[in-house]
Amino acid sequence: QVQLVQSGGGFVQAGGSLRLSCAASGFLFSNVDMDWYRQAPGMQRELVAGISSRDITNYQDSVKGRFTISRDNAKNTVYLQMNSLKPEDTAVYYCKTDISWRDYWGQGTQVIVSS
Question: Strand, coil or helix: what is 63?
Answer without folding.
Answer: helix
